[in-house]
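Please, structure for the following, as tokens.
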Amino acid sequence: MQEPHKEEQRIPASLEIAHDVSNRLIRFRTTLQRMAYFEQKPTRGRTGHFDLATDRGTVAVALRRHPRARNYTLKVGAPAGAPVLTMPVRGSLAEARAFLDRNAGWLVRQIGRLPEARPIVDGAAIPLRGVPHAIRQTGARRGTVAVEDGADAPVLLVAGRPEHLRRRVIDFFRREARRDLDQAVMKHAMVLGVRVKAIRLRDQTTRWGSCSSAGTLSFSWRLIMAPPFILDYLAAHEVAHLHEMNHGPRFWHLVESICPQTGQARAWLNKEGPRLHAIGA
């Protein structure tokens, strides 16, 4: 037995087209929203650089987004390093550029005050624990670096190929810095009764040392070029942070209690620190 024929209800073609267009528009808007989200999502770290035209030529200013940055800041580091503009994670490039343009005069003056770079080469003189040492390439195929008394000043005797001289000297300075810092840090940690998790050597251009909340202390290996009381001050400074993770009055009282030469050391670093960064830059 056949079922009675039911008449099909057809949707007008114009409504089908309108419905299809509406769905496509919704999908298109969703895609645009997703694109906008990813374009606006902030990124950490370096984000490129700005070129700043000056009377001395074009200066490349590196850009860095930092999660703790609340304002735009400019810093000038070592002679061979690019100035750094630090900006908030959600800051805009337009605001960063405007900040750079407003402070271009200050930046140029700071760059002009930087000492000239001093390469680590045969015949040059660089300080070790505050005493100038003349570098002398020995020509020996084997060996590393040794210190010898010279007629006018101590001498650093460097073995190996000439193209390896700079690296060998820096490796030697790092070993000497490690030895002195281990002793100084241990001395101050015992006085304050704190535990140091680890000591690391770096080549920071904007700071001489740092202390992490986990107890890791980091120092610039270049401290070995300064007089010994400078290295001792930095060791005391970072060890004190294991008691006070700030730079308040209690922190400075603590530092001065274990390092009486704190004031002299800070003044010396402000004046002579850039010269140390210029060596081998």
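The first strand starts at residue 45 and ends at 54. DSSP finds seven helices and eleven strands in the chain.
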